[in-house]
Amino acid sequence: MALSKMEDIRKLSAEEVTEEIAKIKRELFELRFQKATRQMETGFHQFKHARHRLAQLMTVEREQQLASANSSDGE
Question: Where do the H-state alpha helices sit in 1-75?
């Protein structure tokens, strides 16, 4: 699984970004649960991918918030 590109994430709408953030947070929870209950023997790289994607999504979400704040201030 390759790491996602910021270009692809920036194309998402604000609602889609919020949904993806919730999905990734849930995925991280499930991964932590699997690790704690020793159901996961391999695949620890999934943590890195999920955290990386979450950081990208949260960055884009903040960019969109700032852009909407700047556009409303300019009016």
Answer: 6-10, 14-36, 45-74
Rounded to the nearest angstrom, the gap between the alpha carbon of residue 49 and the centroid of all alpha carbons in its chain is: 10
Give the pTM: 0.85
Asked if 1 contacts 49 with a C-beta cutoff of 8 angstroms, the reply is yes
Q: Using the 8-state DSSP alphabet, how is residue 1 labeled?
A: -
Residue 54: which of 4, 2, 12 has the closest Cα? Answer: 4
pLDDT value for 22: 98
Contact of 37 with 4, CB cutoff 8 Å: no
Question: Which residue segments constitute the domains of the chain, with CATH numbers given?
Answer: 6-71 (1.10.287)
Rounded to whole angstroms, the Cα distance separating 36 from 14 reads: 33
Look up tokens 């960055």; give the residue. Answer: 59
